[in-house]
Every structure is written in C-alpha cells, then in structure tokens.
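pipeline/complex-builder :: batch 7 item 3
reading input block
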Amino acid sequence: MSNDRIVGKSVPRLEGRDKVTGASRYVDDVELPGMIYGATIRSRIARGKIKSINFLPIVNWDEFVVVSAKDIPGKNCIALIGEDQPCLAEELINHPEEPILLLAHPDRTLLAKAVEAVSIEYDPLPPIFTIEDSEKLSEIVWGTDNIFKSYLIQKGDVESTFKNADYIVEAEYTTGAQEQLYIENNGMIASFDPQQGITVWGSLQCPYYVHKALMELCGLPEDRVRVVQMETGGAFGGKEEYPSMLAAHATLLAIKSGKPVKIVYDRMEDMAATTKRHPSRTRHRTAVSKEGKILGGEIEFTIDGGAYKTLTPVVLSRGALHAGGPYYWPSVRVRAKSVATNAPPHGAFRGFGAPQSLFAMERHMDFIAQTLGISPIEVRRRNFLKPGQTTTTEQVIQEQIDLGKLLDRAVELADYRAKKEHFAKESLSANKKKGIGIAAFLHGAGFTGSGERYLNSLVGVETCPDGSVRVLVSSTEFGQGTKTVLCQIAAEALGVRYEDVGIAQPDTQKVPNSGPTVASRTIMVVGKLVHSAALAILQTLRSAALLAEVYSPEEFRAACREHVAQNGVFRSLARYQQADDISWDEENYRGAAYAAFAWAVYVAEVTVDLTSYSVTVDDFVCLQEVGRVLHPVLAAGQIIGGVAQGIGFALYERVIWDKGRMKNGQMTNYIMPTSADIPPIRVFFEELGNIHGAFGAKGIGELPMDGPAPAIVNAVVDALGVSFNSVPLLPEDIFEALTANGSHETMPALANSKQ
Amino acid sequence: MNNLSQTATKSDITLVVNGKTVTVRAFAMERLLDVLRTQIGLTGTKEGCGEGECGSCSVLMDGTLVNSCLIPVLQASGTHITTIEGLATDKRLHALQQAFLDFGGAQCGICTPGMILAAVHLLSQNPQPTSADIREGLSGNLCRCTGYMQIFEAVAGAARRCGQ
Amino acid sequence: MRSHPADYELLTPNNLPSVLSLLAQEPGAWLPIAGGTDLMVQYAAGHLAARKLVSIWNLPELRRIEILPGEIRVGAACTYTDLIENDVVNLEFPLLTSAARWTGGVANQNRGTLGGNIVNASPAADSLPALLVYGAELILVSVRGERRVPYEHFHTGYRKTQCAADEVIQFICLPRQFSDYRAYTRKIGARNAQAISKVCLAALGRVAGGVIEDICMAVGSVAPVPFRLAETEKVLRGKRIDPALILLATKTVAREIQPIDDIRSSARYRRAVTANLVAEFLKGFSEGGSKKSSMLARWNSLPLAEAALEILPCCGSNSWARQMAALRPIEDEDTLLAASDKIWRSLTESDWMEAFAHHPRIGHSATPSTAPARSAQWSSEEQQKVAAAGDNVLAELAEGNRAYEERFSRIFIVCAAGNSAQTILDILRRRLRNDKQTELQESAEQQRQITSLRLKKWNSE
C-alpha cells in the first residue's frame, strides 16, 4: 500500500461536469461567423480511372465552392508514414468512397442534394478484395507486389524443432474488419487567414499528426498551421489518422472560399469511407511435445491494409510482435506481411494488430490442448513465460510476473473447474449448451522498440499567476481519462490538491508534442514525463527559497504565485529519454520490443441456444496485471469498455462488403452490443509496478480488446465440440457448421426427447 | 433526384423548451434535433446516427422519451421539451448527473445527455428499477466507451439515493 | 441528414375529417405520417420519395383503445407504449404486448404506431405476425366512408397493402376469444434489443387431451409479406401432438416459407430457425420434456408472493426471490440454476448485502434471527465439516472472522460445503488481503455457489 493521496483514488473526472450537463463543446456544437459547410464527392467504383465529371443542373452551382486536386497548394497527399495516399484523387481510383471533389455551401441541408448532382463516369479496372486475391498477384494494385510491408522475426532453430516434435499442430485463423463506431462522427472546422495561415479544430486523437499532414498539403511552415483538439466523442483509433484527411479537405475549402468551413460526416458516410480494423489471416504450424510444451513453430501473419499504406506497417508490427502470446517459444519464425486490396484503407483500432494475432494464438492453444488431450489450463501453464525467459524477439522478461498464479486466480474467480465439469456432464436441455473458455495474453504498452525515442515526446508543466499549475501536452482526452489522470499525477508529484492542477486544451500553438494519443502510452509514458516536469517545478521553487521541505497546498500556491510575480510564468519541460535497458534492433526485429507488458487472463461463460444458434455471454471475468491502478473507476471503465468492444468483435460486428464497399453502414445493420447484450463483466486487477511508468502504471487502454474474442470462441467450442476459427462468429456461422453434411439434427427440440 | 423540388415555406412554430416558451421560424420538416441545436442553440442533444438507433438525440417530449432526430419540428409544436440543459436546477446537478459523475457513467460524453435523459425517464416511471429494468430501459441508448456497467451502477445509485 | 427540408411539406390538421379530405383532394400526393419512426429514417437517408406529408400523430380519433364485449379496437395511431400500458391488451393479447416491447427501444416505442407498422409493410415488422394469429380486422376510413377488411390479406406484396391512396387505417380490431389459448412468440434478431427481426413466429394453440383443437401460426421475415402458416396449421389441426407430428410440422413449414439471403441473414438459417421455433412452440404442449420435479411443478403454481417466500432461504435476497418467482413457470433444474445465476449477478450491492446477512459466521452455529429457519438448517448442514474441527482451528477461525468483519463491515461468506476448517481459514486469510471491491466480487461469487447448492437441495426434496 502507498501513501499517495490522489493517485490511486477515483477523483472526479476533470471535464465530467460539462459532460453530464451538456455543456461540452464538440465540433458540431460550434458555429463560427460566416461559416459554410463542406461535403465530399466520392468514388462509386473500387478501381479505375475517372473519365468525366458532370455537374447536373439540379442545384445552382454558382452558390457552391468546388475544390479538386488542382487546388492543392502543396503536395496532393496525406502525409503519414508514406505519401501514397492522395488527398483528392486526380485520375486513378483505388477504393470505393475515395475522395475526388469537395463542395461547400452555406446551407448544410442542400449539400446532400448537390453531392447527388455530381455525375462521374469511370473506366473501371479489375479490383481485388481479399488477402488471397492480393497474394495471387494477378492484379498489382500497390507498389510492385501489393505488399506494404513485411517483417521477419526469427529465434532459434525452427527446422530442427519440427524434426523432434511429438506433434505438429497446424491451423488457420481469420478475423474480419471492425468499425470503431465512436458515437460522435468525424468532424472538422478549418479556417484560413493569409497572414496567420491555417487553423483547424476537430475531433481527433493526434494534433501533431494533423499538423504535419497540413504542412505538407499546403506547403506551409510549422508556425502557419495550427491544430486544436475539441471535445472528442470517442475515438478508439478511428480518429488517429483519418482526421488528417478530413482536416485537409476542410482546409482546402477554407482556402478557396475564404470562409471558415465545417465538415461533419453523417453515420453512413463515416462508416463507408473511414478506416476499420485490419482483417487478418494467421497460420500456425507448431511443434509440440507430448506434454504439451511448445518446442517451436512458424507463424504466418497477414493483414489486409486496403488501398493505401496509412499506418499499416505499424499495425503489422504490433500484430507480429504479439503473435506468440504470453508464451515461451524456444524457437519461432514469424513471417508477417501486409497486403494491398481495393478497400478503403484500414487503420488504427484499439489493439492495433494484437487482437488479430492474439485471437489466433489463443484459439491455437486450445487446439493444441484438444489435440493432446490436455486441459486448456494446463497447456497454458506449461508454456507461460517466466521471469528471466525471453519473448519471440528475445526480450528478457525482467519483472516477477507469475502467469501461472494469474491463471489460477482467474480460474478460481470464474469457478471454472466446477462449471466445466457441470457443463460437460449435463446440457441445460436439448436446446441449450453451455461452455467456458479462457484467453491468456499480454499487451505491450508504448511505441515499439525505438518508437518512443523516435517520437521524442516533450511535455510541459507551467506555473500560473493564481498559484495553480497547468499541464501542457498534445495528448488528447476522448473519454479514457487523459485529463484526469495526468492532473492527478502532477498534483501528487507537487503535493498539491487535485483542484490545483489544470490542463491546457491540446493546441499545437500552445502545447509541446507529447506524441500521439495511441499505443496505450499516455499515462505510462507521457504521465511519467508530466511527473518529471512537475518535480522540476518543485525544485525551482525550492531553489528560489520560496518553498520549504514540508509545505501545505496553500503554501505551494503562495510560493507559485510569488514566483510568477517575480519571474513570469515558468514552463518546466521534460523530454523522453530511452531507458538504458531498452534496446531494440530495428533491422533484425530483435530485442526489447516494449518497455512494459501488461498481462491478463480472461474467462468467458457462454450459452449457445440451439434453437436460434445464437451465443449469449453469461459471465465474464477479466483479471489483469497492470503495474498500478492510478484511478480505480477509470481503470475499470477502460477494461469494461474494451471488453464490450471485444464482445462485439467476437459475436456481433460483421462488416458486409459489396465490391469493396461497406454495405451495412448504418447503426441498424452494423450490430454493436446494446445494454441488453452485455453480461456482468467482473474486473480484477493485480499490481506489480513498472519502473518505466508514471507511479508504476502500465498502459491498459488496449489490453482489454485482446482477450474477449478468443475467450468467447473457446467457450463456444467447449460448448459445442465443434471448431470455430474465425470472428465474428454469427449464429448463421454456427448453424452452418453444425448442419454441415447433415451432421446435426436441425430440430433440437426433437433431438433428445426420449419416447 | 429528377424532379424540380417544391420549395415549402417556413412558419412560426412555438414550443416550450426547458420551461421557456420559444418560437422558431422553420420548415415543418426540419428535425426537432436540428432546431434545438441550431436555432435554439441547445447543443447538448447530439446526433449519433440520424436513424433513431443510438439514442444520443433523446429528449423528453411532454415527459416521454423520444428520439428528436425522428421528429419533424411541426409535430413538436405546443409540446414541452426537456433537454439535458434543463435538468440541473440552480447549479445543482440532478441526482442522475451526480451519479454519472460518481460512478464513471460518462467517458467521452457524447452519449451521456441522451443516456441521462433515458435514465430520468426510466426513474420517473419506475423509481426502484431492478437491474433488468435498467438494462431494458436503456437498451435504446448506445454507448461505445463504457460497456454500460458503470452506467447501470450510476442509475442504480441514483435510484437508491432518491429513495432515501 | 440527406434531405432538404425546403423540399417537403408537412401539414398537421387537428382532426381526422380534415386529413381525409386532404387525401381525397389530391389522391396519392399526400402521405400520412404518424410517429415517423420509419418515414423519418427514410427521410434522413435521402430516400423519402413522398414530398407532401400529412400528420396523423396523436389524432384523438386514431389514438385510443376501445374495449367492447366481443373485441377491442386499437386506434391505428396508438403507440407501442400505449399497447404495453393497456391492461386488456396485456392480458388477452400478450403476443402484441411482447412485439411492442421488443420493437426498438423505449424512445421508439413512445412514437412508433401500430398503424404505421402495418402500412409501412416491412415483412420484418414486429407486430404483424401477432395481428395475423389474432385474426385481426382493419377499419379503413376515407371521404367515401368506412370499410372493414380482414387483416389476413391486407398485404398484397412486398411493402404493398390494400390501403387506398385516400384511406387511413382507423382501427385494428382484435376478437376477444383467445383466453384459453396457449400463446407463444419469439423474435430472432441480431442482438437482444433494437434489432430488425431475422425470423419471427407468433402462435396460438388450444390443446385438449393431447389433441390440437385449434392452432394459428404466423411468421415474419421469411417471405415478402408476413403471413399465416395455413398449410402447417392444416397439417396440425385436429391431430394428437407427438414427436412424429412435430417433425411433420417442421417439414411443412420449411416448405411453406420463402426466406431469402439478405443483409441480415441467410435463407438456410431462416428456414431452419423457423422450423425450430415451430417445434419449440409445439413441444411446449407435450407432457414430456427434460428434468422436472414435483417440487418445481408445485412451486410453479403458487401465487407470486408465496413462491418468492418459499425460495428465499436459498439466497436471502428478497429481490432475487421476487425475480425468480416472476420467471415462472421454470421447466427444470438446469433452467432454475441458470436463472438464479443470472439474476444474482445482476443484483445491486445492497441486495447482495441482504443475502450475506442471512448467514451465520462460519464456525459458528447461531444464525441471525432474521434468517428463515430453513436457511439456518442448511447453514448448519453446510458447516458440518467445519464444526468437526479442533478447538485451536475454530479459535483461529473466530479470530479471522473478527478481523474480516472489522475490515469489510460484514461477515465472511464462503461456500463451506465439504471444506475443512483449515481450508476455510486459508481462504479467509487470503481474502483478508483483498481490496474492498475485489472482496465484494469474491463474496458474491461464493454466495452464488451457496445459492446453487441450496436450490439443488430444495428441488430434490
């Protein structure tokens, strides 16, 4: 137990009052004087060339501002990792919904009509839509070989392990696309002033990503582009890279019209046109001893990146690095690649490649268990990483994590053994079968390897005239508690009250670049820098003899006021320093991939209704080791929210593709869980601390996304005795599997009735 | 889109919003949601889907929970509308607002106004709801952030407090 | 929002005759709009072809329920909430109430109307199968007068009805003749709320001496229109229910429906599930079935309050007992246990506390006087092995209990059955280190196990 007064307590959410009173201002709540509204003309085909564009006389075109690629002052690209994605298509189309033109008009309700009045003719080219089609190379849709990026992770001698194996277990696992479905659609306001440059305000996660993209697009220097984050209604990665595109569009219209421009998508456009989770295919070929120990194996991990590179290489990286799960692989070869198709580019979504590869790993562990006749508990216990052992990239596990004990505790909390026994002996009735399933996993927090060094994050904490302090970060709040916890950290470090700390709105003109709000890094990495910067303020006040060794919050405020009066505002900056024990070989993909791993075991109890073939999750236990819980309510909220999205990923959220376009792009037919679909989700934490994280915290935002899908599918497999290796797993899929080759009585009401 | 469109005319429509009588000049088929947000300036009510699925646009109309994105403003003429801005009185939060703060019921906040109003409606009909009642009563309001559990706790917490 | 409000006219006459004369003036030009839960969705998507709308929302002539001796007349502009809140509808037409409850969420139930559901004529509409099995008749009105038609053939094709351009449905008439019928309805959607149906079955049956005297079944989402399963009904009427008949019925219904592949589901799935639902309905009549006990059968027939009181000692929470009793009839032990688990897990913290308070301290024999005698008896049976321990261990247990109560302000709950005092002591010591939230969860899980064991004992008496 600690003596912390603020960290570790559930202090009130900093911006909570505004949220519960409707006072928070999101992008669409703001009107600027003279503001007009923008809309996007998008491709209706997946691949081809634009032949002609016609403006039908249904609206008065004189009233509209029209922007095409010709109006782009700088480079026609959305600069991110690569520069292959155009801001507006000029001649070539590579995916449905690709932006071609922009329109703006003062009457927002006229825009949809105008969009319909633009008629475009195309010369189509043959599109490809699946990983397999991309691999065939009959059509090259990107680069020379359709491959955005590949990685190879090698450890030990895989070939000899296959020779010595008692068993070789092989299977393929797939996951589908998933829509982030933040309840606030993407939106952006832009304004242009010839002297000041561009200002954009938007719903976004990474102000400096947008900043960089706009600099390239407009050919402007960094002090003539300003990006401000507004209250953001959910993001989950869906507002990591896409806002740069939207900001670019609003900016072009603002430049051409000379007026502020707002673009807010409606749900249909947001679903069809913006990023989704990368679909994946994982192939495991594993050498296993008869005791169920993994001797080595090959993992082939492939993701579909859609039409342009965007963040795909990084998603691939994380997926590849998590592909081995929390297990010890004496030898392994992970071949990871990301391929291009003619779908709208896929992008960041909580978990970022790990939910995909961990789904495969955890299903595969159950398959190994089943093959060998060992329990799912034992097979995991026998293979768990132990302190001192190395991961697939040969990172040494330094902390004293006991995964076997974590597993035991989760199993006990879920009453796993008794239930498994009971379910095996008796089915509920002819119509319902119950099962229970486990997933054990890890999630690396922060950017991979040298990523944090590359980000070179800078954080500020400054003194204010009234004696309070203010945190200055580009890290954004979108519900996960950034503002609250960073202020807790500063308050704890300074020995002041939580109320004495404020935080600036992320505005590239006013805050340093603390890196993007992604990768579960905000509390752990940025929080630690906030801590350092805050401590430096203490030192400064003490050096100025304004503050004694022991002081009260009031005394701090007085000292702070005095210092400001004498010297002006003092901005304490802290920059990221890579710890010495984190060394990463980018070329060979070897070494310390992550500064810290959080560990977890999840258990799902399900009922499969054989009348409707639908799965209900009855109970869900989530146990995770997270370093330190800095805010119990927020931490639990992150886990529960992530589990709910994981349940959606597992059982409900199918993207239906029609020639590359999302066909079910409405909330009525893209199915996310309602309050009536969520089981009791029971959350438990363990805390081992973390030397690399603020107050010992590890990142937890994405962790809960990794476990639910495999735990639930493992439970369904347990219930039915039939293998399922794909998510989402819908009732129709279960029905088809159970009735394949007439293998199952389709009228279960009759099946077990004894005459 | 192949016929010339008729142009309707705007008319004066009067309704009572959060206790105040308001007259707006609008087309009959403007959505109540848009009139509340744009003309009346009450931006607390949100658009999440435009199809009555997410409940972010929920308001109380004559004490009844409705999705304002599906209501032509002319049909709201003469009715009493309560939006999220009308809940707190004299700077004191409604019990549900306070409970949402205490139990973590609001994360990104975009579903929160609709969710709180749905909870207000629920408690007005059923002051001591069971958890099944809470789940059912809120099933028309989607939340992507919380996974609902802390929202249930907030509603149950508010019900307990009001019952004391 | 993809429509331009300036392109649309909406009038709100305040009486029905004005609406009718408007419809008659320009036949086909005006579209009635009630709650708007279908039309406004089309409008927002830019798909509403009609440009002139006339509101029939809340018209008193259309929004009322008339209770007559032989039938009820539901005004077409009654909302789903109006149906849910009407006692006669609930009692005599439960299939309609069920359909109303699972249409959208509360906000949409407050605006969506029964008439709107009919004229919008989606084959997936929730209330239409119920109307078909109840043998509804519609009263349609126009300036030309009134006509009454059977609902059965009202749908003439996909999204087409017999309603003329100048007509409005005024009433949906339901004959009050089904009180002695067993009612069954089930909707299969993609999730538990706010789901468009993939398959929906509404059914009524009257069975005497194992023979089907009358049977009505209707389906939605498996054809261009909702319809009565006339062929399947014919195969069943007058026959004795047995597995062979049920099998024949499922084969007949599989032939009778015309499901398709669409954005929501597949034809094969719909065909199989519809057959499953029919079988489930029919099986409910038969005397056979899975594990029943005379205990459960007797308990199922008790009045609500008595049933709750009887089962209370298994758990100790009044809310749990009430919710269990409200779920009856409960078919068999497995359903009983599953229901208990589900309800227990969803209770509030104070309900849990109430349950915990029913136990004696572990290692102690005296039960709190507030607990029922039954509970005390079970407690002492469960703690038999503990009671057999030596004085040393019992003393340590007492000390542990005291420390626990000091830390957590309630007694230590553990599922003692079969465990020795030493084992329990170890568990107690481990749990003493938990934080409050974790310990609450663990106590709740233990209570769930205790309740489960007690239910089994109770059921086998």
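note: The interface with chain B takes residues 1, 3-12, 33, 35-37, 40-41, 43-45, 51, 53, 55, 57, 81, 104-108, 110-111, 192-194, 319, 323, 346-348, 350 of chain C (CB under 8 Å).
queue -> next item
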